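INFO  loader      accepted 1 record
INFO  loader      residues=199
INFO  predictor   begin
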Amino acid sequence: MATSRAVRIGIFVFDDAEELDVAGPYEVLTAWALKSPLRPEVVLFSAEGSGVRLAKGMRLLPDTSLEELGPLHVLVYPGGHGTRRLLLDSEHLEWLHEMRATTPLMTSVCTGALVFAAAGLLAGRPATTHFSAFDELAEIDPSILLDTEARFVDDGDVVTSAGVSAGIDMALHLVARLESADAARAVRREIQYKPGPPL
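INFO  predictor   done
INFO  writer      dumping tokens
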């Protein structure tokens, strides 16, 4: 992504977001930030800038709030049970519309895609989500082209990923897009991510 400024990535956090949906992309993207000559900035933010309690009890203190966030090149929107509340919040959906107009790359992890769909961001587009949420996604917007096999779906200015650990794959893909495949491979080595579960 060509830009005269440092790449700025915001990860939105909220109550009942899934821990790995947040921590997986954060680990990949901050590991990249430490190595890259592009010097990307990774920012955690919540609606009010206050702390949040994630789905399994982890507490996070974000860097900033929506109001003070400033412009982003990439938005990372996690999933989790908290998305069900947000997809019914008209003010929040309007904020996503505004972000879409100013943010070149919108990305979701897991059921974050449900909120994107409710905001109209996935209409007529290919997308994926957690395997258990495809029916919900189709109910929100039947025009979405569901990809039930992919770990992530890159549709240009919108990228969605499947559930939980798939956010790591998507984040590595973002590194490859924003810098290079070699940079993504270097990050993967750094975090010793080599999928191949023993079970």
